[in-house]
Amino acid sequence: MREVVIVDGVRTAVGRRKGIFASYRSDELAALVLDELVKRAGVEKAEIDDVILGCVTQTGEQAGNIARTAALIAGFPIHVPGVTIDRQCGSSQQAVHFGAQAIASGDMDMVIAGGVESMTREPMFTNIGDTKLSSKLIEKYEIINQGLSSERMVKKWNLTREDLDKYSSNSHSKALEAIKKGHFVNEIVPVEIIQEDGTRKSVTVDEGPRLGTTVEVLSGLRTVFDENGVITAGNASQMSDGASAVLLMSKERAKQLGLKPKARIVARSVTGSDPTLMLSGPIEATRKVLLKAGLSINEMDTYEVNEAFAQVPLVWLKETGADPEKLNPDGGAIALGHPLGATGTRLLVTLMNRLERTGGRYGLLAICEGMGMANATIIERIE
């Protein structure tokens, strides 16, 4: 099997739902990222074997295979294909896995993997409409929404409202500090938008993090799914808009082109988990990927575990014995937002840049997914 490397990665800033990207089509946002990625990497668009994008709500402007339409908008030659996949919140992470598998097997040499989501223009669940779940599925499993799943996780792992709100407050603080220190500058492509007054603005900063987000402020928010529960809008991820992508290549091809990759993909995993509890999948996906890599959690220099809800990373910490100081040190989806299809490669780009900035060696990424699934990826920084 051939070694797969990540040559470069890029993302847009993440906009709040109905925020800075409200008037920006998601196919055009994805096209902007695709165009910028090949420019930064210094490769020709004609060299790309495939464009694989994750997108969850594949309806309206995000229907019709957005990977293909975005590539055409971005000026890729017509022989460059595209495919759109849905692994729920881990869609773009799965795009990376599929691309890496194609390269490792020798089927392809150069793949763009990424994702896009406009939760403003194509709201969550609009692709489902009034469709009801199969009665055969309901007979087999208790299917509840993620908010109620979160409430059950909190009880199972004996967490409190204060635990969740404290974690969420810290997510905002860490994200604001990361922005202040310029940690995201190198990974964000500017997006020019036209404001309501007709003036143009270049968007280069994530819109989600809020100053003054304290435990006291969060404790005043009402619960959303259970009036006697603990899950609020403040300790859950934000609905968001954004796009992201990475350029994958065989090590041999990168060497032929004289490119200097940023990281190599060490191991990948995907797993199913309890569809009722739903969001506990990253625990097993992490165990699985560490076993594949022949590494321990203590050998990881940093990790990104998607903050779908605050209890997800907190439970993951409990079960894996990981170091909380290494977890999401630049904030997570509670502060920075969660544009569903784009989140996997958004986190991967941030993880890769952090390893480069700090000189760390190994990074781990894990994401929980709807209906009980999870992906995990380990990367190694290349000197």
UniProtKB/TrEMBL annotation:
InterPro entries in the cross-refs: Thiolase, Thiolase-like, Thiolase_AS, Thiolase_C, Thiolase_CS, Thiolase_N
What Gene Ontology molecular function terms does this protein carry?
A: acetyl-CoA C-acyltransferase activity
| Active-site residues from the entry | C89 (acyl-thioester intermediate), H338 (proton acceptor), C368 (proton acceptor)
Record carries keyword tRNA processing:
no
Which residues belong to any copy of the Thiolase C-terminal domain?
259-381
Question: Taking every annotated instance into account, which residue ranges of this chain make up the domain Thiolase N-terminal?
Answer: 4-252
Q: Which family does it belong to?
A: Belongs to the thiolase-like superfamily. Thiolase family.
Protein name per the record: Thiolase family protein
Species the sequence originates in: Psychrobacillus vulpis
